[in-house]
Amino acid sequence: MLNLQLFYFLFLFSLLTFCTANFSVPHVSVNTERLIEDLKILGQFSDGDYPGITRLLYSKEDKAARRYLVALFEKSGLSVSWDPVGNIFARWEGSDPRAPAVASGSHFDTLLNAGLYDGTLGVLGALEAVRSLKEVGFEPKRSIDIIAFTSEEVSRFGIGCLGSRYLVGSLSIEELVKLKDSDGVDFESARKSCGYTERLEDSKISEDFYSAFVELHIEQYHILEDEGIPIGLVTDIAAPALYTIEWKGPGGHAGSVPSNERQDPFLAASEFALSLEQLVLRDPKNSRATIGRVEVYPGSAGAIPRSARLSLDIRDINEESRTRVKDLSLEKAAAIARKRKVTMETSHNYSYPPARMDQRIIQVMEDSCRAYNFRYLKLVSRPFHDSLFMATKFPTGMIFIPCNGGKSHVPDEYASPDDISHGVEVLAETLARLSYQ
Amino acid sequence: MLNLQLFYFLFLFSLLTFCTANFSVPHVSVNTERLIEDLKILGQFSDGDYPGITRLLYSKEDKAARRYLVALFEKSGLSVSWDPVGNIFARWEGSDPRAPAVASGSHFDTLLNAGLYDGTLGVLGALEAVRSLKEVGFEPKRSIDIIAFTSEEVSRFGIGCLGSRYLVGSLSIEELVKLKDSDGVDFESARKSCGYTERLEDSKISEDFYSAFVELHIEQYHILEDEGIPIGLVTDIAAPALYTIEWKGPGGHAGSVPSNERQDPFLAASEFALSLEQLVLRDPKNSRATIGRVEVYPGSAGAIPRSARLSLDIRDINEESRTRVKDLSLEKAAAIARKRKVTMETSHNYSYPPARMDQRIIQVMEDSCRAYNFRYLKLVSRPFHDSLFMATKFPTGMIFIPCNGGKSHVPDEYASPDDISHGVEVLAETLARLSYQ
Ligand SMILES: [Mn+2]
Ligand SMILES: [Mn+2]
Ligand SMILES: [Mn+2]
Ligand SMILES: [Mn+2]
């Protein structure tokens, strides 16, 4: 009798621990070949020469990529929907469809002439996680959503994380409709030309719509590679501030005006670029400052420039030190303008606050790494991601995998099949666990 | 009898001097309003917002401008023809049509967002000179050709004086057919799309085709304005050398790579620009060096540049000192590349020899100024012109008029109606005298 009671107690205890702390998911068998093929096909929707990838929001390549993604999601038995800006949702319905869902995803737009993995790995990696969970017979409790975000990159409309910001309500309709691309095309025309004709409306998604959001992404730097560790778990995301500085002068004929009479705005821009470099070199491990866009007008060999315009991107996990770099550099830009007798105008494109990842999700991701015996490293993400904004509304976590040489936003951006496979395994395990939490 | 002989002798002597040294042309009455209206209409054929003028070779605006010019020439009773590259010739036949003709003209293409007078004044001013000579009953002995040159500016195909170089045979067909614009359109496609479908052929125009060439042009600097002198007579034309320098680095993500690990080609370009400025500031009255075209690739705010490409335009009347500036600056560019661990490539777009204007023509222009009681100044042209190449084959001269603030290649380029009128008067007188020489 005592034995029977003990047996009964042990049985109940096991059942309880199985369902909570020691919840166990069958190991998945990731089909890495299939995933990489999908990535490569998606990479073909590009306005430029492969392997350099250019896929701007609402371009014809973007439109084609959207059709491809929707077809892939539907082929895997997911129900697909989208919102007015074109965030695409592919749902694997759980046994408790009314419970807040678990979501995973990333973006599929690119900068100009960029790489194959940035963003797309988080979209197609989430699909592969779902496919491989289905293949081992896993059944989710909470539904699992794959989100393919509209435009995380700044390449078309000059602002980042457009889709995720719209989703969480941190981008107003007024801001959206004011956007224009460099050809003067406004956001609404572009959106509608891509087939998204529903009215924009303020986000109605409440904080309990998702119980968790997890994004798989390449590291875009070489810490994991240097340490030989396959998985990075993000603790914080550094956030960017973007400014535009333009200097203007009278121009003139390249043959006529003597050098000592010139008021050349490009020389002002050059002087600024070198002074900015000196400023951030004082603290190279923290502040990042980049001049990525340079436009000199009119741009003729025979004309002294009349205008030079730069983008100034500053990133830090520490908002204060980011602001200090901004203040010092804009002061310097103005001093250079005075000295060179050119005018200067600055505009502030955006500043986002840094984000902290959710401790509970980090814990689940650590458990998931252990389930597969993967070493992992907790680290800061200096690039920003849709997770920066998803974290403002939902508990959020990010899984990083190494990429070759830490290179990203370049055509030779590369992640190995093994690293991709490991990242998807950790993601699958994490999503499965979160769907029962 | 002695009186009669003396009278007879004096009569013959007067006749002789009238026909040679003291050849006299009736003063013309320039219709400045008509000329300025023509200039403004021509300015409407522009791909951009007036008053900024953009008319690139073989563009639809150029094609429309050509139709307009041909119609104007024909309306004035001139016989119009053109060559395979689209140099347009409008001939006023003289009483001795087999004698080498006198020619006057300039270009009608522009840089990007440029002014109304550069080039066009020399085309329509020559037409006004011819119209006003016709109106006072003047009849030329040598025929007078107005030449509207195809593309003096570098704005579409990257080389200057394309039309005049083709005309004098200093631009080979092999060089021409290799040209591509920045969109990759080749010269032959562009030429044919503009309606010039005849085969290109090497220049058949011999040195005795024209006895003289005279170009009317705005000064593009402010010496005449500063001195309050209405007419400049050019003695020498400084000639340009154009190079392209490109630095390349690995690029990378703006958030990831710390400043001390970057190999940023735009910072190399900036450092070069400032060192070039220092170099030419040592001798600001002679060397002119200009970075007018700057292209940074990929040009995204979130990506460290992978490439920065500059145009380097150096001009001097002294070929040796021009070469010295080139040598020193390219050495510096290479040193910067080594220091910053970026690669560098340079290409040599062109170098032209400086030109000396013809003494006999300068003498005729001086006489013409005196005929109208205009003060004049002999000066050097630092900008180059079609005259730089016409001078390689024909005796050549240039008449400058002041332009406001010396500004050129900018939308507010301006020459006053009075100055325009005086320039055309001197041109008309000069052409008339040259047609009898
Ligand atoms: Mn990115
Ligand atoms: Mn990304
Ligand atoms: Mn010009
Ligand atoms: Mn000109």
Automatic annotation (TrEMBL), chains A, B:
InterPro entries: Amidase_Cbmase, Bact_exopeptidase_dim_dom, Peptidase_M20, Peptidase_M20_dimer. It comes from the Eukaryota. Homodimer. SUPFAM superfamilies: Bacterial exopeptidase dimerisation domain, Zn-dependent exopeptidases. Its EC number is 3.5.1.87. Residues 1-21 form the signal peptide. Gene3D superfamilies: 3.30.70.360, Zn peptidases (3.40.630.10). This is N-carbamoyl-L-amino-acid hydrolase. The lineage of its organism: Eukaryota, Rhodophyta, Bangiophyceae, Galdieriales, Galdieriaceae. Residues 243-335 form the Peptidase M20 dimerisation domain. It holds the Pfam family Peptidase_M20. GO terms for molecular function: hydrolase activity, acting on carbon-nitrogen (but not peptide) bonds, in linear amidines; metal ion binding; N-carbamoyl-L-amino-acid hydrolase activity. Its cofactor is Mn(2+). Keywords: Hydrolase, Manganese, Metal-binding, Signal. NCBIfam families: hydantase (TIGR01879), PRK09290.1-5 (NF006771).
